[in-house]
Here is the input.
Amino acid sequence: MSRPLAAATSAADKRAALRAGLNSNRIQRLPGAFNPLVATLIQEIGFEGVYVSGAVVSADLALPDIGLTTLSEVTERSRQIARVTDLPVLVDADTGFGEPMNAARTVALLEDAGIAGLHLEDQVNPKRCGHLDGKAVVPTADMVRRVRAAVAARRDPNFVICARTDAAGLEGVDAAIDRARAYADAGADLIFTEALPAAADFEKFRAAVSIPLLANMTEFGKSDLLSARTLEAIGYNAVIYPVSTLRLAMSAAEAGLREIDRTGTQAGLLDRMQHRSRLYELVRYERYAEFDSHIYDFASERGRR
Here is the structure.
């Protein structure tokens, strides 16, 4: 009988899958999940992984993305999401929540939570959203220490350490490339190139950096929205859609609530709602019922012996 209470795939196997995917010839698509139910949907549709965005964790708590969330908050939400999916989960760990020692502890806690990898960024702490102005980056040497601490702290060698650079918009693409190379030399497995404007910039980065690269296709930001096929042709290894599901959900929720406020009823919204039967399908309601029946029958059989 299948187990309904958690993902069937071990954390170690998820990490191996992420690493293998990054080294394959196929781009790994990781939509953002703002809760475990969305992660379940991401897996069902057939994506290669799940992303947990720091901006989304902040927004879900009604906070701006300026480094206000704590390591424990991010870890717990990530644990909840990783528990329900067989896909590898990549987590936005901001600046590592402090100094290099904090980055090391972040790796340890997220590894314990069943996460497949994380990314650390080279912004000054507290950070800002990568597609807003007013950012500042730390010296390259400081970020190198963050990366080295993270690499040294991991116990599973397949746990992916991704280094994000926000330097392109501040110091130029060439400077960001130099930083990326330094982070790779420090042991990063994957480079996240934040807020590159156009395809030509992604191509330049790909030509200059030898390790796997991740692209951020967030809406309403500084980057052109390139398709996964285009990014794969350029040579990128992974792409995230960090806030897409939250933006879709919040837009629909706001429109629906305004109609209820205006009309006094949700009757006109039913065709835009997820049906109860579909929700039960996603949460595997029948499998829980089967599990419960099996345990009850097993206990009854034992009682008759």
Remarks:
- The chain has a mean pLDDT of 92.
